[in-house]
Amino acid sequence: MSPQDRLKGEFPFGGTARSAKGAPMSDRLRFDVLKRLGDFAFECDLDLPLAGLVALFGASGAGKSTLINLVAGLLQPDAGRIAIGPDVFFDAKERVRLPIEKRGLGVVFQDARLFPHLSVRANLMFGFKRAGARVLAPQVTFDAVVELLGLATLLERRPHTLSGGEKQRVALGRALLAQPRLLLMDEPLASLDASRKAEVLPYIERLRDEFAIPILYVSHSLDEVLRLATTLVLIERGRVVAAGSVAEVLALPHAQPFIGGGGAGALLFATVQSHDEHYALSTLACDGFTLRVPRLDASIGMRLRVRIPTREVALALARPSDVSISNRIEGVIDRVQASDMAGTYAEARVRVGPSAVLSATVTRESAERLALAPGLRVWCLVKSVALDAGALAAARGSVATPVALREPANDERLRVDDPPR
Amino acid sequence: MLTTAELEALRLSLQVALIAVIFSLPAAILVAWLLARFDFAGKSLLDAVVHLPLVLPPVVIGYFLLVVLGTKGPIGSWLAETFGIRLVFTRWGAATAAAVMSFPLMVRAIRLALEAVDRGLEAAARTLGASRLDVFFNVTLPLMLPGIVAGCIVAFAAALGDFGATITFVGNVQGETQTLSLAIYSLTQTPDGDAAALRLVLLSLALALAALFISERLARRVARFIGRA
Known about the structure:
Chain A is an alpha+beta fold and about 425 residues long. Chain A is about 25% helix and about 30% strand.
């Protein structure tokens, strides 16, 4: 499937840990828009189910915030159509232009944009009071939000007395209380320093998990995306490069330039199954197989995201028994392709479970020697040593589990001149 | 302490200035809004007209008012016939003159405050379900309050001190249009009026100081209200 097919295609909400929880019936976001901003042409065609957290990921200036602003109505498209479920927000041909306040969205901006003349309580109530009929059966109550975001002690304070992290928490609560059908978050953590980020991030996770409100989340931080996203949309220079479940998109070869060489790899969703104190190992249950990893400081039953770098995966044609590697996962190759310009390496994508894929980087020579081809049954070998805490991110907010990847992304690495298309 | 005539002049001055400010405030907000937020044909003309009282001699403004709002003027005769309102030689006329003279000062202060309001906050309010009007009254207006207060104070001071436009338009009628400035002027024209004039000058000084003091406190309160303290 070419990237372009992927753009147009429909992306079912991939079988991640989230969909197992049974997200409620979700509306689709249909977005097909042209917008010129000076020399920059933003041209996006997206059709995706709104459920969980949809991350819009790309370098600064790629057009992620433009997309959010177009959905919110803060920018008007030059042409095209935007609709959520049955409601048309914008249609150039039909001359439909739903006013911002009638779209029923909640927006969290990079700068919290709290009203300075109102107390925290009044800020929180601003959207709630204006939510009209939706308030009659509030999906989100004041008490629930105050509880979830830990705002009880801040209610009577004024915004200028709050820290950056507190402000952003209030902004989250304010947007939630407007009873939105969709939350838009435009780099909500970007203006915070590392420790404030760590303070707010778990709240976004809780919000994602505890309310059935889908979130469109703009970010240029790979860390945030890996930790939060259920669906991932890659945007580059005003165009959608790929969209789909986060595990699928991360496994796409043309997604690799976004993630950076060291970061390339598959993302798996796992549950902590048991701990082996004798060998100091933990067993993680994935989708149809288990992984042995170094002993984790995580309770049994906890959901985790495991990132397996493609370079840490080796392939064998038969089940190997006399090797040190303990993670041997059976699967079927569904694609093999060259992964670098020089032609040294090939990348094989292996389907190892109903929703799980692993990618292995092997030399092209090995690929030919083993005759790797789609449909071939192979064994993926993953060293437990490769799956240290750095590769694991808690799917739910837990401060005890490290979330940082070994090589955090930065803008420099994301800027790619000519990505494969 | 003060004579009846002095008290009358003081009361009249305060009354005229207050009426001038109250009636010109909504118009000043509207004009400031138009000038700060919109581009339209004739915008620079509107800007120029609003600023005329600052650059023209007050006497000229008074004369214009007399021509337009006098009993034989186009608007003045209409007001008299339709509502029975007569502006010439009345305190309402004095207030009109004071309002016109202080209008540009008020518009400038309010426009500056409006331009300083973060449009991002207005956009945020829209996304939270507030209509344009709702945003104006519940976000924009409160945030421009410091400018509104400042505008009212300079306009009040200017209205209190107007001389040329007032005397030209509504004359110098004791008890009706003779404000403090006009009373001082009259006394200086009277033989042996110097001592009485000095008393009124001191009264004006006290009034000015009191106004400054009150405005200072008010400004601080407003700043606290919008969370800038």
